[in-house]
Fold this sequence. Notes:
By secondary structure, this protein is of the alpha+beta class. The chain has helices spanning 21-30, 32-35, 49-64, 111-125, 141-149; strands at 5-6, 11-15, 69-75, 78-89, 95-102, 131-137, 153-164, 167-177. Helix 1 crosses helix 3 and helix 4 packs across helix 5 (141-149). The two termini are 22 Å apart. Pfam families: Acetyltransf_3. Keywords: Acyltransferase, Transferase.
Amino acid sequence: MFETCQLSEEVNMRILRPADAAALAAAYVRNREYLSSWEPVRPREYYTEVWQAADIARRLAATEAGEGYPLALFAGDTLVGRFNVAGIVRGPFQSAGLGYWVDSEYAGRGLATAGVQVIVETARAKLGLHRMEASTLLHNVGSQRVLLKAGFRQIGMAPRYLQIAGTWQDHNLYQVLLHD
């Protein structure tokens, strides 16, 4: 469903492969401090190739079941971002969640916006979804701009929605309707 696509001259996006575990672990190690205020507290093992290999395997099994898609941004062989389409629910809901981050060295270049736009279009044209949802911390203005540029609209605020950086934090909730 998701084809490899160029997001910029040097960066492409594609489905993660089992062989990407080392690159993914290296990206998490490289961005550990940068991501720490935006993500849950992670165990030390999370930053290893072994952990990431198991996570990729689990997510690819979910892909086979039609429940999600683990995507990554690459500049050559260097993994520089991560996108997850997760929790696909069929039936009357036809919905999925979206999460993403871009490497600190590549942030601010429009890659998150381009990646989210490709994902939204793929969800509309190839996955047959009706809607996608995403959430951001209240103070994550950059991510909010990404979602708005990709057609998402804020639909509310969820108090103490996720435990981020060790604290239950409020999140703005967003959705994009893919079909009228």
